[in-house]
Each structure stands twice: as C-alpha cells, then as structure tokens.
Amino acid sequence: MQEAGFKDFVRGECGSDTQHLSYLEYQIQQDTARLKEIQKAIEINAAAEKFAKEIHKTYLEIDNMGRRTITGKMSISKEDFDLLSELAKEGISSRGTIQRVKSDSQILQQRNWNLQRSLERQRKQLETLMIRGYRYWQALKVEPEKVETFLDSVLEPLRKKEENRPKRFCIPKERIIHRGIRKDENRIN
Question: Where does the pLDDT of residue 13 fall: very low under 50, low under 70, confident under 90, or very high at 90 and above?
Fold first, then answer.
C-alpha cells in the first residue's frame, strides 16, 4: 500500500487487518466493474449502429434500383417496383404521424414554458412572503402565546367588519351552467 502512494497506511495498524483487500485485489474488482460498464456501452452503441446501417442500406437499395436504357429512360424490375411502392406508401403514411408528433411537441413546449413562468412567479411570491413573514416567524419561535394574542387583537376588528358586511345576491350552484344562467331562467342584471 505504501508503494501505491498511501504513506500513512501500515498493515495491521489503525484498524487495518488481513480482511482488507490487497491493492491488486482492489484493482481487479475496479477493472471488472469498468469492464461491465464498457460492455453495456458497447451493446447500446451496437444497437444504434445496426439501426443506422439498416437505414443506410435501404437508401443504397433505393439509389441502385432500376437501370438506364439506351434511350436514357429508367427501367425497373417488378420486385424493385413493389419495394419502392411499399416504401413510398410507408413514407406518406408516416407524414401524418410526424406532423402529429411535431404538433404535440409544440404544445408540450408551450405548456413547459407556461409552467416555468408560473413557477418563477410563484417562486418570487414565496420569496416575498418569506421576507415579509420572517420577523413573525422569529417572534413565533420565541414567544408563541404573545404572538397569537397580538394577532387575535389585530384581526378581531377585521372579522367583525366581515360579519357585518351585507351578503351579495348569489345564484345557487345548481342553477349555474358553464356559460351563465340556464336558458329557462330569467337573467338578473
């Protein structure tokens, strides 16, 4: 261990005993773990490369289909024509899917932007509230009974004022529909 750079390490002292791994055993374990990680990365890259090769192969097949005749026109075999027709149909049918995915992506991006704006607004409100309520929180930690008594005395006139406030005319919930009062009811202006 001292040869490996651990100057303060002496086997058999300060809790070190034969149960601890030797430097070589530790290196073997670390190399085995790294080997497993590299093998996983190779498997992932191989799958992606296989997919890319298949696409490239398909492009080459399409490019090599047909032959030019003496007059300069293209002639194509029945099998190549069928394959080309199938690929064209698949490409056209996938346009709708691509458009839908793009539309969904735009909607999700807009939602994400709106949520970020809302989160930032709420974060600012929370910060303001924390600044305004910091002194109350400190006082509440020191003297909770006094703070409660003080708040009750301050808020009592407000509660009385709200109790004496006249009730506004309210339409029962069962008579309210999505965009106003039911059609059979007379609207009160």
Answer: low
| Amino acid in position 69 | T
Rounded CA gap, 114 and 120, in Å?
A: 10
**How far is 90 from 189, CA to CA, in rounded Å?**
60
Q: Read off the amino acid at residue 126.
A: L
Paired strand residues for 67: 75
pLDDT in tens, 143-169: 999 988 988 898 888 888 887 777 665
- Taking CA atoms, 50 is separated from 54, 55, 159, in Å, by 6, 9, 73
Beta strands in the chain (DSSP E): 67-68, 74-75, 176-177, 180-181
Contact 9, 1 (CB under 8 A): yes
Residues 6+ apart with CB under 8 A from 46: none
- Give the C-alpha separation, 112 to 106, whole Å: 10
